[in-house]
Amino acid sequence: MNVSFFSDLLSSISERGRGLIGFGRGDEPGRASVADLVKLSHELISRRGEASGVALARIILDRYSSLPQKDRFAFLIHIAGDFGSDEAAIEHAIDAYRKTPSRAAAHALHDAAEPKSQELIRRLNLAAGGTLSLVRLREDLIDLFQTLRTERSDAAVAVESLDQDFVHLFSSWFNRGFLVLRRVDWTTPAHILEKIIRYEAVHEISDWDDLRRRIAPADRRCFAFFHPALVDEPLIFVEVALTTEIPDAIAPILTKERDPIPLKAATTATFYSISNCQRGLSGVSFGNFLIKQVVEDLCREIPNLKSFVTLSPVPGFAGWLAREIRSPEPTGIRPEDRELLQLTEEPEWFAEAAMAEAVRKPLLAAAAYYFLRAKTATGRPVDPVARFHLGNGARLERLNFLGDTSAKGLKQAHGLMVNYLYDLDTIEKHHEAYANLGVVTASSAVQKALKFEGPSRAVPAAG
């Protein structure tokens, strides 16, 4: 009700503001040119009136959304190039700070250094529905950057800088303090359930029956985080299976033919799918301890739960292993294991028991190195899922050979899945060790699987 009232208030202000800038209620956005849209954007950041600014922001966003992709890209390139910092103002502020260092002078320097694009983004956000429109706009920006990333042209550099402006502002607007955790079940409105089906990124939901199997039984749960400005748009959701032991494979969890267990028999909560829903928020941290919040909710509802784990994919492992196998001097595998590991390139290799058993030990040893030693240029684990869970305070608990033999699981990780353990007593300690020192906390079983202690080599981060 409060959100609806605020939205209605903004719409009322916007309608009155349209009259102030010469647009009536019935005026259609029409087909805008890129030049017109850039001109309106300059006008928006030069205005001081709140009502006219809200109206103009909505007009800009509406006209932007009506443009074909090539014109939207052209507009974003203009914004990236034309809405930078005022270099003369920066020089003046630097001189003032050098002459009289003070907090006020430092604040003035900060204001001078801020690019105009950040102020434009903030003002566009004033429009009714502006936050969601900006999230969608950043999806275009991500696509544009993908087309330019091989260049080091001025446009590519400017677009990358504009994207950093979005990440900077979104990181404040979408921090954990604003997020609301809600359970998703079969009584949740259909339009939200449809989005859960569409946004599922780990294990595809095939239809409504498949969704019902995941959220309706007594031993299944689904939780989603929402933001007040995106009322019906989940930001991230977590699917949970309540089990009697820590699972080592995904098929028994997703199978159609299973008997639900009674809640009093459940000892383990397994997070088997965690999906980020908004592509326009990729790279934006929602804060750490999101999983801890889900764990705490489950503990209140089902006090007999003792273990909280994930059953996680390893999306970059197959690509990393292929590079190691082909490297003349591999760092993550033993040379004598190269021939055995090449068997994973054979179709249906996992279906032949003798071949699978031959591959098991060298593959798990390579996986242990991948998690414990392979690093990005910034010193973090190369696996993006590992970075998420370790940042949330989990411990790498177990490597599961052939945990996912679906086509996707074999392509991404030769069937490998892993369990991360969330222990409420050590979450903060593990988070601090990872955040401050880059420590990968792992069980003794994972550490024992590390058979090869070659020098670590930084590789590009995935995701």
Give the helix/strand layout.
Layout: H1 2-20, H2 34-46, H3 50-66, H4 69-82, H5 87-99, H6 103-113, H7 116-124, H8 130-148, H9 154-173, E1 180-183, H10 190-199, H11 208-215, E2 220-226, E3 236-243, H12 251-254, E4 268-276, H13 290-301, E5 307-310, H14 317-326, H15 338-341, H16 353-372, H17 384-391, E6 395-400, H18 407-413, E7 417-421, H19 427-437, H20 444-449
Helix pairs in contact: 1-3, 2-3, 2-4, 2-7, 3-8, 4-9, 5-6, 7-9, 8-9
Structural key phrases:
3 domains, Butyryl-CoA Dehydrogenase, subunit A, domain 3, alpha+beta, 20 helices, 7 strands, globular, disordered C terminus, single chain, two-stranded antiparallel sheet, 463 residues, Aminopeptidase, 5-stranded mixed sheet
